Each structure stands twice: as C-alpha cells, then as structure tokens.
Amino acid sequence: MSLPKESKKYTYADYLTWPEGERWEIINGVPYNMSPSLERKHQKVVGELFAYIHNYLKGKTCEVYNAPFDVRLLDENVSDDVTNVVQPDIVIVCDPRKLDDKGCKGSPDMIVEVVSPSTLKRDLKEKFYLYEKAGVKVYWIVFPDEKTVLSYHLGEDGKYKRPEVYSEEDNIKVGIFESLEIDLKDVFDY
After folding, report:
1. Is residue 18 part of a domain?
2. What does the alpha-carbon distance between residue 72 and residue 83 come to, in Å, rounded to a whole number?
3. DSSP-based three-state secondary structure for 33
4. pLDDT at site 62
5. What CA–CA distance (Å, rounded) separates 41 from 55?
6. Which stretches make up the Putative restriction endonuclease domain (predicted)?
7. For the chain, what percentages of helix, strand and coil (3-state, to nearest 5) are there?
8. How many other C-beta atoms can be found within 10 angstroms of the C-beta atom of residue 112?
9. How many structural domains comprise the chain?
10. How many CB atoms lie within 10 A of CB 75?
11. pLDDT digits (tens, 9 = 90+) for 58-81
12. What is the pLDDT of residue 3?
C-alpha cells in the first residue's frame, strides 16, 4: 500500500490500494488528501442540507449520500482506469444503474460542496470545471462563514449558467426537484 507521489497520474485502481481510514480524491489523475472538516459550521450545514433532502426523498427513486462516498466521474469507460474520483459533501443520484457497492459510477444529478479554507480553490475552480464537463445537472457551492449558496445549473450547451446566489434569508429550490424548497435560516442557524 504505497501512498501517492506527485509526479504520477493516478487512477481509481491506485486509489483502491491506499490505506483505509484516509480520504483521498483524484482530479485529472492528481491525488488530494481530504482532511475532513471538523468545524462545527461545516458539519451543521452538511447535516441540515442532508436532512432536508433525505426526508424529501423518502419513498422516491432518487437517493442522497453524504461523504465519504466515492463518485467516479467516467470518461468513456466504467473501469478502474478512471482518473477522477471525488467525495463531495452531498450527492444526489436518480439513476439506480449508476450506484454500486463502491459508490456512484458516472455523473450524479446534483453535488453539494461546503467549502472550507483548504478546499476553496479546488471547489471553485477545479471541481467546477470537472462537474460541468461530467454533466452534473446542479452544483451548489456553500459558504458557511458568509452564509451563502451559489447554485449552478447546467445549460443545454453543457455549460453552467450564471449562478443563482442565496443567503440565509432565502428559501432555495433544489433545481432537480420542483417541490423541494429549503429554508436557509435553518441551515445557517449557528
């Protein structure tokens, strides 16, 4: 079980050999050690959003997962040669064929990333373009300190449209479900 070296391009097959108990992501073949955020605000936001979505999805075909949950963003194949493996804070998958015992293989319908200082650049830039290219329909970037959410929706051209910006005074509609609205006062109540 060797840990990654920066000069090599890594795949999901490599990822599977790394020590359990450590969290890693691979973006375009580059590994990133994921230290889980222990900040109370981060945990509160993830927990509240997950609870809203989980309760809404009871009895429906879509499923919601929270980290650690592997999402293998595929290019053309379903093999272990995948070079993009992420562990978003929250993932919604509506196609059960994309789920297996290892996580999600392919693009989820929605991803939520709650930023922390150590992940800010990656969430805003690298993952933004990665999720856009992979066809993730809705991508939320949540800023716990600012109590705001940027909501990106994939356009017909395959590019994210200008974000909708929400603050703690707003209710936010979950773009893939017309009838699910989340009161951000509850989410940012800390």
Report:
1. no
2. 8
3. strand
4. 97
5. 21
6. 13-183
7. 25, 30, 50
8. 25
9. 1
10. 10
11. 999 999 999 999 999 976 555 678
12. 54
CB 37 within 8 A of CB 19: no
Structural domain including 145 reads 37-187
The answer to whether position 119 is within a domain reads yes
The confidence score (pLDDT) of residue 120 equals: 85
Residue with tokens 């998958």, as numbered in its chain: 93
Per-residue confidence (pLDDT) for residue 178, from 0 to 100: 82
| Cα–Cα distance for residue pair 4/73, rounded to 1 Å | 20
HEC string of 80-148 equals CCCCCEECCCEEEECCHHHEECCEEECCCCEEEEECCCCCHHHHHHHHHHHHHHHCCCEEEEEECCCCE
Closest to 172 measured CA to CA, from 59, 42, 58, 49? 49
pTM tops 0.85, yes or no: yes
Element (H, E) at 50: helix 40-57
Whole-angstrom distance, CA of residue 109 vs CA of residue 126? 18
Domain-embedded: residue 41 = yes
What pLDDT is recorded for position 1? 41
Stretches where the chain sits below pLDDT 50 are 1
Of the candidates 82, 133, 79, 81, the one whose C-alpha atom is nearest the C-alpha of residue 111 is: 133
CATH at 67: 3.90.1570.10
- Residue 33: per-residue pLDDT: 87
Q: How many CB atoms lie within 10 A of CB 49?
A: 25
pLDDT, tens digit, 9 for 90 and up, residues 136-150: 999 999 999 999 999
